[in-house]
Amino acid sequence: MRATSSFSDIFLYRPHVDMRKSINGLSQIVAEELKRNPCDGGLFVFISRYRATLKALYWDNSGFALWHKRLEKAKFHWLKATSEESLAINCEQLDLLLSGLDIEKVKPHQKLSLHAFS
To answer: Mean pLDDT throughout 13-32?
Structure first.
């Protein structure tokens, strides 16, 4: 899989997905339910019902690529489904999610703006 930082956008599809779906089924979800072009350079991430399996779909300029990860004992900390079916996240948040951290609870340092001293 490409580095997560190389994707223009990363989207988590919040509802669980039947993991028997492959490239065609997942790209259909992207197009029909998310109203996005699956070939636009984004990474689309899907989760199974029991949150132990994750799939990521992307277009790599010559075809679709599908990445699949299954946890043997743990579960992914997934964001609850809301009225929004997808959530845009950044590459750092995806890396945290894949590492087993709950991205809703992880709080980065507050961004500061330093002004020039006179």
So the answer is: 94
Strand 64-70's sheet: what is its strand order?
64-70, 53-59, 43-47, 10-16, 86-89
Query: Beta strand pairing status for 43-47 and 10-16?
Result: parallel
> Of 47, 70, 68, 71, whose CA–CA distance to 58 is shortest?
68
Mean pLDDT of all residues in 68-72: 90
SS3 16: strand
- C-alpha 105/C-alpha 78 separation (Å) is 11
Whole-prediction pTM value?
0.81
Residues 30, 38 contacting (CB under 8 angstroms):
yes
